[in-house]
Amino acid sequence: MNRASRLLRPALGASFAILLSGCGGSGGTGTTAATTGRANLTIDWPVATRLVPVASNSITVSFLSGTEVLQSKTVAKPEEGESSTVSFTDLPAGTLRLKAEAFPTAGGTGTAQASASQNVTIVADSSVELAITMAPNIRSFSIAPESPTVVAGESVSLSAVAKNASGATVLTSSSTVGWSSGDTSIATVAANGVVTGVKAGTTQITVTDSESGVTGSVTLTVAIGTGGAVVIVD
Predict the structure, then answer these.
(1) Which pLDDT score, from 0 to 100, does residue 174 have?
(2) Could you report the per-residue pLDDT of 1-16, keeping only the tens digit for each?
(3) What would the pLDDT profile of 88-97 be if each residue is shown by its tens digit?
(4) Mean of the pLDDT values across residues 52-69?
(5) CA–CA separation, 76 vs 96, rounded Å?
(6) CATH of 140-231, one of 3.30.830.10, 2.60.40.1080, 3.30.1490.20, 2.60.40.1220
(7) Could you tell me which residues come within 8 angstroms of residue 115 by beta carbon, excluding any fewer than 6 positions away?
């Protein structure tokens, strides 16, 4: 029997699920019981604008026993078509840990952009259906400059870098990152992070990743320019 896995399109693009169904054992002979199973996984890739995360180009699927990786395979996003398949054989019957990670490169290198892990039970000569949901690994944003100041009527460019729990950079897509101003009467911000001062004061400039919902913000100060001098109004 087979174990099938499917990567589904999310309704809101916030996460994606791998559904596994069917676990087959290697048939025994005589009175010898089957002790292993196999897994056949099919990954349905959403179109590029809906891929979660958008910048991902491969998924690495691993089966572990404790901390030992029993088998691991990386599936690259195909250039044409929306599905990929990968097979695992001779998986020992019992409880294993299934781990899935999405990477920005086709070879499964770099910092994982999304991941999930859960225990699964491999039962010889029987079938089971499981589900695992991968969530983006972004935990915070680092915004530069940290304390931006701009003169009313002029602009300053802000940049944001997404970080995971360990502080490593997680690649994002410009289509999933948005900027907003807490008070547009003081400053406005464009989709590319360019902030324009409107009048003297301070306001929060916030960046948001739409896939993970993670935000980051800095306090922007808008000053008044007077003959070459900059006056900051508290």
Answers:
(1) 81
(2) 333 333 332 222 223 3
(3) 888 898 899 9
(4) 83
(5) 24
(6) 2.60.40.1080
(7) 99, 100, 101, 102, 134, 135, 137
- What residues does each domain of the chain span? 4-136, 140-231
Q: What is the pTM of this model?
A: 0.64
Instruction: Give me the sign of the Cα torsion angle 89, 16, 206, 105.
Output: positive
Q: CA nearest 178: which of 205, 203, 209, 157?
A: 209
* Alpha carbon distances (Å) from 19 to 5, 60, 69, 92, 219: 5, 15, 21, 20, 43
* Amino acid residing at 79: E
Other beta carbons within 10 Å of 183: 16
CA distance 41 to 28: 24
User: 4-136 architecture in CATH?
Assistant: Sandwich (2.60)
Same fold for the domain at 4-136 and the one at 140-231? yes
**Shortest CA distance to 22 belongs to which of 128, 130, 131, 132?**
128
